[in-house]
Amino acid sequence: MIKGSKICGISDQDTLNFIINHPYPPQFIGFICNYKKSSRFVEVEKLHELLKLDKKKSSFVAVLVKPDQEILEKIKLLPFDYYQIYDCSPEEIRMIKKKYKKKIITALTIKDKKDVEKYQLFLEVTDIYLFDSKGYEKSMSFDHKLIEGIKIKKPLMIAGNIQMNDNLENYKKIADIIDISGGLETSGVKDKSKIDVFLNKVEQVQNET
What we know:
10 strands
C-alpha cells in the first residue's frame, strides 16, 4: 500500500519551497550530500543555506554513499531526520546511528535476487528499507518484481528509474513509499509541473487505498 513519497536530489531553494508548500507535500525530501558524481550533489556550505527554512510536514533525508567521518561531522548539525546510506556494512551503520542519533534508510542496490536477500543483514539497524537500482547518479531500472514477495515489518521504499507517468497502482503491492528523482526532471533540472503532477497522483492513490 502506498503511504507516501520521497522526492530526491533537491538542490535549489525555489524547488524546495515549492515542494514543502505543496498541498500534498512528500513525506521525504532527499539531498545528495557526498556523492560528487551526481549532478544533484549539494556542497555542505550550500546545504546550510538551503535547509534553513521550515520543513513543515516533510522529513529531510541526507543521501550518503559510504560516508566517512569528515562528511558525517560536517552535516551533523543540519536538520536531517534520516540518513539514507549506501555501501556500508550493518556494523558501520550501527555506529553511525548510535553516534549521530538519526533514523536510517538502508539503501540496497538491486540487480538480482541475491542483492534483495541482503536486507536480512540490516534488520537491527534499519528504520526504512530502500530498494534501488545499481545506477546511483544514473536513472537505471531494476526488476521491481524481485521484491514483491518480501515481508518486512518496516516501511519499504522503492526507487530505480520511476517516472512521473508510471501507473502508481503497479507499486501498491510492493512498496509503502515511492522514491523519485530523475523522473521529475526536464533536461536534468527539477520541473515543478512534473512535481505537481506526481504529488497529486500519489495523493489520489493514497485516497483509493
